[in-house]
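Researcher: Next sequence.
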Amino acid sequence: MRSASEQTDGPGGAGGGGAAVAGGAPGGGPAPEEHAYPDHWEADVVLRDGGTARIRPITADDADRLVSFYEQVSDESKYYRFFAPYPRLSAKDVHRFTHHDFVDRVGLAATVGDDFIATVRYDRINDLGRPASFPADEAEVAFLVQDAHQGRGVASALLEHIAAVARERGIRRFAAEVLPANTKMIKVFTDAGYTQKRSFEDGSVRLHLDLEPTDRSLAVQRAREQRAEARSVQRLLAPRSVAVVGAGRAPGGVGRTVLRNVVAGGFTGQVYAVNPALGADGPAELDGVPAFPSVGAVGAPVDLAIVAVPAERVPEVVADCGEHGVRGLVVLSAGYAESGGPEGRERQRALVRQARSYGMRIIGPNAFGIIDTAEDVRLNASLAPELPAAGRIGLFTQSGAIGVALLARLHRRGAGLSSFISAGNRADVSGNDVLQHWYDDPATDVVLLYLESLGNPRKFARLARRTAAVKPVVVVKGARHSGSAPPGHRVPVTRIPHATVSALLRQAGVIRVDTVTELVDAGVLLAGQPLPAGPRVAILGNSESLGLLAYDACLTEGLRPQRPLDLTTGATPADFRDALAAALADDSCDAVVVTAIPWVGIEGTTEVLAASLREAVAGSGAAGAAKPVVVVHVEMGGLAEALSAATSTRPALTRRRTAASAPPESGRTQDARAAQSAPSSQSIQSTQGSDTSQTSHASQAAQAPQDPHAPQDGSEAAGPDGPARNIPAYPAAERAVRALAEAVRYAQWRRQAADPGRVPEYDSIDESGAAAFIDRVLRERGAGQESRGVGLTAEETGALLGRYGIALRPTLPAPGPDAAVAAAAVLGYPVALKTTAPHLRHRPDLGGVRLDLATEQQLRTAYAELTEALGKPEELQPVVQAMAPRGVDTVIRAAIDPAVGAVLSFGLAGAASDLLGDTAHRLVPATDQDAAELVRSIRTAPLLFGWRGSAPVDTPALEELLLRVSRLVDDHPEIVSVVLEPAVVGPTGVSVLGAAVRLAPPAPTTDLGPRRLPSY
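Model: Next structure:
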């Protein structure tokens, strides 16, 4: 495809090359500053096959790289690029393609190591297709991808980045001319999701793309991001060959331990031991696997390297791996940013840069390792002594110590894993990447995350919401109250309380728990039981006291328990079976809690009870909707052992193929989730005491992938040899009910997420007028990127809000009593007199507000009392305002937080709400459903709905006001905060009595724009 200069002067022409910017830089800035090297355009990206590349501007220093790159491109690709045979670049070509002004002429390269693998450039053109300068807003774009890297999604990634660069430089449209036979390039454009036009002229296809992002282009971008990042994680978890670098000759040590664990776990691929002391003069074999002095000496492909050498030796190992085609690294070595010093942080940054330069991704450093239990993988590349049982839970931790504890607890609970990643300092691969993998991993039904920090909270919330729509995501966050991230974790600083962040994550569907015990409790229930259809809970058992404890716990968690059914201490296992079967068949309950205490003087009853409970649940499948069952037991450890023995012969699960053997991504989203199989028999997982009881690991492996959209009904019950569900058992009623309550809330969120609402459109919004107003204010006040922003005056605030249909109650200044009387005459009595001094604002307890002043005398008296009690008029800054109808005082806030983005908040005005933290939050943009939930989710909401006989307020008007504020902040990222206080909601309408707005140049966002990895 040809650029404008090439179409004018031929492939070797120089027309338009190196032209200066006649009209200055877009936005009016000085040209030299605009022409400085734009280092913010540099980005690391994950490609379709899971490898990485670096995108950066092309400079004059790249001449030799460009020539070398062009020599490796096939004649066919060169013909497609220049529309003619063009075997080599002339010196003039090289100069033109490496000298850019970064405004009207821009070139980007995708690199691996020090080599170009693809290039893209644009040249600004005018309406006639001739080279032009700003303010022309169209550009010709052209790509060239090395043949060996075609099909990796390089051109798609470059298009995202060159489009973002063009928009930044004031370009709104791309034009491209492509030969009809160049179908790959045509597909890159047509699949991008931008609004486009296509025509056929003079034997070539002419494409025009509108660069304004659309819903489709954003969806395409995020789908590609998901496939690429998921693939990069899958390549790490399912390699065909593994090298353990640092495996010593003597037993013990980290490297030798991991080598032993890989071998003992039964890894299905090839394993190599690597150590300079091995192979050449040392032993040629270690723990039964071939041994070599370096990765390069292996002489065969190595997909994954486990690095366990001192930190100072890691760079040479990374170079050895990168130069010999290793795809990924798990770095167990310590001595990086976790040490807390600048040297360790710089060593970590250098490690990431070096690995990415070779197209490799890293887990770690300071990692505990990774595990994949798939039958065709069986990889235990960790310090865990045993490969866990195969199961349906994916586990991610940032802490090795917590990872050990969670693996042990899940093992004792009989809960199997699909995969496990302990990321250590998570310098590269993070929880976001793993969520991308588990989202459509057919082997994972439940996601458990232990996080100590969130590197990109906006992206995490987006990915968690999408994943939670198909499978539960349970999160426990450590370091909540330390005030800083753990050493080694690079995270943005949030300005909002941790409780608010947690609330926002819950709104994204995340099951937020406080302890690792709760994480395991919820995980085993969700992995083994269907989701409840509602909050109604039946309770039955042979202990009245234990039943009452469960009943109270249900009320505490907001569930709706039925009166406990006491089977008495004389109940037999058959009585349990009949009672449980009746509860499962009862349409008036959605879940069942079974409580059990041991029988006195009767041996072997626990085994019979286990069989009876399994029989009842198995028989319920054909009777109606599946319901979750949990067991609360006291000192009945043998119950789980009995069930383990009874279910250990069930068939193992057929798992996914390895990443290495999987076919290349087709670019289309694949529905890998199979239909859910309802239970036919169940086992009980015990949590009693030290958790010494275990369920057969094979029972977990027998569960089929779940289709989240399939109905939970008995028509899908498995046959006698089919998949089975585990009944989780807990030593305390509170733990069982808390886990059940989390499942109830999550199921409710899933139902609501199916219809998330909509963002309404309002005719009375002047978006362009508001944008011009904001631009003018920032320009006049001189608010640059380093500025903390500017606060608007009362008049400016009213003008900006008015453009979004938000009217402020009329207010006039009152610098003296006569001015107050004059203002009241304009506004009309009754009026309010109030101070606006910052130290008195929103402090009615100090007496700075006088209401319902109906006459001039009352106004003068109130003015004299205010100035006598609180200070001089110039200190108080009094104003007169028209009285609003009586109602409930509320506060509406919207603010931009660097960690989570724009947040809309709502609560009632007053000290009580502030002290209790009774404020609800939603992410912007808010939907109509979000607004309704905001109003109803605060604890003081009854005051809005006719509490104690008061008149209900106009909640539809309040919800509309919330949506207008949300739209204002969403449309204009320069608005960093909006406060409406108070907004008085009456029986009809809302009166906004006070408002404050603050503007600042928008900060770079972490989850918008072209996809990129975190920079180092």
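Model: The chain has 30 helices and 40 strands. The mean pLDDT is 83.
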